[in-house]
Each structure stands twice: as C-alpha cells, then as structure tokens.
Sequence to fold (839 residues):
Amino acid sequence: MLKTTSYFSCLLLFGLLCTLASCSNSGMITIAKNGSSSYAIVLSSDASPSEKHAADELMHHIKLATDAELPIVTEGDPRASEPARIFVGKSQALIDALPVASLSFEYSGPEAFDIKTIGSGKKADIAIVGHPQRGTMYGVYTFLDRLGFRWYTKRVTRVPEGKSLSIAAMEIHESPAFISRDTTIKEARDGDWAARNRMNAGHADLDVTRGGGVRVNGVHTLDRLVPPELFDTHPEYFPLIGGKRVTGLVQRCISNPDLIDISVENLKKWMDEEPDQRIFSVSANDVGMLCQCENCSKITQDEGAIAGLFLRYVNDIAERIEKTHPEHYVCTLAYAITETAPKITQPRKNVIIRLCPFYICCSHTFTTCTKPASVNFYKTLKQWGEISENIFIWHYATNFDSYLLPFPNFKEFTHDIKVYDDNNVNGLFLQGAGKSGSSDSDMRAWVAARLMWDPTLDSDALIEEWMTAIYAAGYAPMKKIFDHLHERVADPEKHLSIHDRVTEESWPKEEIAKLDGLYSEAAALAAGNDDALYYIEKNRMATRYLSMLFESGHLVLDGDKYHPEGNTVTLLDYDQYRADMVKYDVEGLREEPFDGNYEYLIGEKLRVHDTVALENSDMKVVVAPDLGGRILSIIMKDSGEDILGVTDPLSYFYPAYGGYEESTTMTWGRTGFANKYEVEIDGRTMTLTGAEGINGRAKGLIFKRTMTIPQKGTRIDFNSTVENVSDDMKYARLVSHIELNTDPQESLVGYRNASGKMVEEDAKNFYKNAKNTPTGRWYVTNKKSGWTIENRFPKNDIEACRLMCYAHTKSIEMETLGFEKNLEPGGKLVRKHSYEIKR
Fold:
C-alpha cells in the first residue's frame, strides 16, 4: 500500500509506506539444506547492538530449520569478500558487492529497511540493511517471516519443515504503518517475542540489543508536574471547587500562568533523568475535580471543551520545552473529560494527542456501530485529525473487571486498526489484559502485532492461521467457540463494554456447559500435543472462571460465624484453580484497586469467617474484622429486621463489600475497605485497627476506628482515624459507606440543604439528580417498613454525599466523603459522625 502521512523527526519517524516488488530474476536461492550452507553472515565492524543481535537471530533460526550453522564474520574477514553472503546492516563489503546506486542507505526513521538479492544462483548475495536502531533487525525478521518462520507465542515458534530454506529473488523497501506499536497484553511483554513480531513500544522488555522501544513516559502526570505538597504554600495552584481550594486527587488551576514555570522545570528534570526517551506525558489526572474559578471556566466555555483548557497549558509547556529539548515531544491524553476536541486551540507541532476511545462498543467497529459513544468517537477522531498531525490511539481490548471473561472483540479491533491507519493515526497502543488472560490474549497479541505493522493484511486469515497452528487437531471445536462467542455480540444493538458485569443472565449455565463441551472435544482431539493442550486448557480457564463465580454461593450469618451457603465449588476446587493460574501464567483476574485482589476474595466466599458484636437491649451490630472490619448486620430487636442490604455476591469485591465500611477514597483505588483488622471490645465500644490490606498494601497508612453504642437505643457513634506511618507525604480522605435494605422505589431521602432547610424527596430522584448538598444531616426512610436511618456529621468535615440506588438488589448505598488532604509523615485524618435508626 502506498500512503502519504505526516511524520515527526527523523529520530522517531519512518516513511509510512510499504512497497513490495518482485525482481525479474527467476529461480530460487537455496540458503541452507540438510545441515549444509554455502552462506556466511556479514556484519559491519561497527554494527549496532540490534544488528549484532539480528545476525545471531538469523544464524539461530537457519540452524533451527536446517541444522546448518552459518558463520558470522565482520567485513574485515576474508570470507566477507566472497559471494554467497547475507549482509546484515550496512558495511563496506556490502557497498563493494552492490551494483552502482542500487541502495541509497537513506532511511527516514529507525525502522525502515531494504531487502535485496544481488545476483542469482549459488553465488547470489542477500542484503538486509536498514536504520541501525531497529530497521536492520526488523529486516531480518521480515526475511525470516518470508522463509516461513512465525512466532505465534513465546512458547510456540513455527519452523519451516523439510530441512531446507529457499527464497525467490526479491527487492523490498518496507516500514511500518504506525511508529509506535504497543500492548499491555502480558503475553506480549517477552522481549524476544516482541522484537520478532516487530512490536517496538515500552511495555515489552526491549533492551538495546532488541532496538529499545518507543515509550510514552507517564500517563496522568499533574501530580508530578505540580506536586500536591505545594498546596500548603500555594493553594492558588489547585482547583477552586465549591468555593474552596482543594487538594488530593484533583486537577490544577491550570489557567494560572505560574504553573507553566513549575511544570516546565519539573518536566525538564524528568526528561534529563531519562535521556534515551523522547515522548513525555503532560496530562490531566484520572478524575473529574476540575477547577471552577472564573478564568478556567471562561476558557472552557470559549473552547467548547475541557480539552481546550488543558491544551493551552500543554502548548505553553511544549513551546518552552522545544527551546531546550528540540527532539522531544509532549504527549497529552484526549481521554474522558478531555476527549472532545476544542474549537479554538490547536496542538503545536511537538505535541502528540493521545486519543482514548474509552466508551466505545467493543463488538462493532465504531464506523458502523449505533452506540452513541461509538458514533461520537468517530466524529472526535476526525475532529482531532483536522487540527493535529500527531495522533496516538489508546485502544481498549479487554474486560477490565474480568480479564478471563470471554471477550469477543476481534471483529472490532482488527477493523478499527485499519480505520486508524486510514485516518493518519501514527501511534497505536492496545490495552489488553495486563496480568494475562485466556489464550485469546496470545492470539490477540499476535494478530494485533501483524496488523500494526501492516493494516492491509487479512485479519480473518491471520486468525485462521494462528488457530490452526496452535490448536492443531483441536482446531475445529476451538473455532466453533470463537465463532459462537462473536455471534453472541453480532446483533447491532448488543454492545460489548470494557466493564461488562458478570451475570447469570448474560452467561446462563447452558451456555457455559455448551462451551465447556467444545473444550473437552478439542482437548480429546489434541491429545498428545502438549502445546495444543496447553493453549486449549488455558483458554478453558474462562468457563472455569464463570463456573467458579456462579457456584461459589454467598456468605450468611449463623451465630458468630459468617459461612458459605449455596456453593457447589469447594476450597479444593479453588486451590486447583489458583494452581492452574500459575501454570498458565495468569497473575490476576481483573484490574485491581489498591487493596483489591479479586482472586483472593473469591476464595473468601468459600471460607468461614469469625464475627464479633456490639449489643444492647434494642439492637445488635455484627462485625467481620478480617473483611475490612465491615459491619455485616444491624438487627433491630423489636422487629428482627436487618436494615443492612444484601450485597450481590457477584459484585467484584464481595465479600469485602457491602454492609458498612470505611476507606480512604471513593470507589476505585480506595484502601481500607478490604484490610484485615484487629479488634478490641470494652463494654459497648469496639475498636478496630488495621494496617495491612489483603495484599499487605495499605499505602503506609494505619486505620483505626471506634464504634460505640448506648445502653439503650439504636445509635452508633464513630470516631475514625487514618495515620500516615510512612516516610512520604500521602493524600487521603475518609469515606463512610453503608448499604441499606430498602427498595429505591419505596424510599425517601431527607437532607439539610445549603440554606439549612430540611427537605425530602424520592430516593430515585435524589440519585438521578446527583445532589451532594446535605449539610450536617441526611437520612433515608424505608416507607414500607417504617424505619429511618439518619447520618449526622460536622458540616465542615464533609465535601459531598452520594446516593447509589440498585434495582437488582433492591438496596441503597449512602456514601459520605470527607475532604481529601495531604498527610505528612505522622499526620492524621480524623472524622466523627453517627448513624441513628428511628421508627
């Protein structure tokens, strides 16, 4: 394909075109046969590390296929002047062997190369030469690819059969479609696999012998450029929210011109610390929390997009950086709040826009999908393309909540890669299962690598090739599984999301049994083929995972024990599954928050947990210390009713979820919610202390809370602290979260608004309108049972109150968020509040 596209500098960019033509020379050139070869491999005396590695790889693979071991010589060796040579890289010996001006040795970027046969017959020479950084090495791998080698996985390499290697005369000039080609798929991180499949970016283990990598340094970087510790002396650098300057996980007041000097200074220091890198991120934090000051608000309004506000900041930094680091690029995310292109500001030439289609459907290509987010993204891609020459894409290709869940997105991502190529995108990052997934991850990585190099390839043929090679005799049933999963999401109105929940409705038992039967059939057919069985059973981890979730039941209170009920899988089954995770190199089941470990929590559903209780004449409060110190139950003795909700056992952090809990942040990334707590009881006061999360990771924080109940009555008083016992500054907030056994359709929310007046409305309306105005007091009333739970707190301690309504569990969650603050070593956060149940 001939294609014209813009490009960066000669250091980073290649001419984005690929031409392939056959010479008129007839006949085949035999390189080696039955352990014998007339060829030598010739290197320059000053060959680059990757060229030396490429020569070793060429020798290794030829020997692997034919048993012939070609000598590697440098240009000063007498053998280098004799025909029947394979030149790896530019050398004087190659120049002497070439017809006049038949190779220019001019390469527009570090990955372009030529492959050219010189002469014919037994004395024919072969030149593989390109840019010394990676071009020559990629030329060698392309040459081996034409000989029939394939690197399907780090475990399986296809080697041509017959103990003979021959090739037709050729003349190739080639370079990739995308200058940055990367994926987080764990199976693609192996340095040899990545280099052989011509993946060049930073998530793979690419040392200098494999050409290094094109890495975008950093992602959400505001905390690095404008550190949180500046808040104490310069609160004006931080966002104005609700009339106050706030810190924590927030954006910055980036219309403040003083931030440019600070950001440029820190960015230069960062660049100088990593002299081999050229692309550095200047991007918004992964949160809303935008500045509401007059200037930031006006710029956003004028630009018609939040991206305009951030892009002005990025451009100012890039202009200054260009003067001292002219070969560097500033990369900024067009993601979530910054995805929409601005009306006024355009990126500078040294700014890369990294566009992240976070919300698109993953079952249909965004050029045809009816989902509004997909339709809008295609428009957004066009809009950014009109104002920027430098666009990288961050494309999502897994279910982040369930890495092993079957994710039939091959029809979508393979087509979208071609769409990106057609729209002058020049960098592509495919974010897959970072901790490994089913063997579809292996296939996804290989197919993506081939298409990132050459998007014109037939993706269906690539899928067919991989499955045929890997599953061998088990191919037919494995292909049925693949096709069936894609048919399930083929309906134009059935959209696949990167955060689809696992439900028994979406994965009925009959469906799982059907798939598992096909896996059994494939395994039987592939008996005796260790590699095929390995990948069949690795892929089968998906249905075993679903069965583990659906058959692990839930936990119930029985006396002082919290024990499993309704489970058909056992701890022995669970232990075997964990052993198989190790066998198939699966390190995790989902993208985890800080204290989360989904694998561990599935096992907690199968164990018996001790509980402790506070009790008086009117209520009983039951706590599970080893499950985040959460309150499992608040039982009203007059009615026997438990006011706490029944958490969906398929929730991703069950059983460390639901009831009453405390943590340091809201939702994703929080710590404290799954920690193990020590417990002390003194009369009607319980003290819970916990430092370690379920992985021993608590950000250097110690959590402590006391709960006190009166001799009579139904009130619980809380005194909670978080202390920073690390040597570093931390920022945290205290969040209380309670799940209530009340149907949103039959519930009221009452709250004291900003003017101090108590108002009341239906819970579903409060949730829909996303109010956060309760000031010192708010409550939820169950109209059917007639009880009310009221939460009181000092009004200046709370930033926001949130209400979540769930129809499927008929429950409501009340969440109260304290202000996020910087904690110096030894610093503490303290919150006092109470809940009281009234009838």
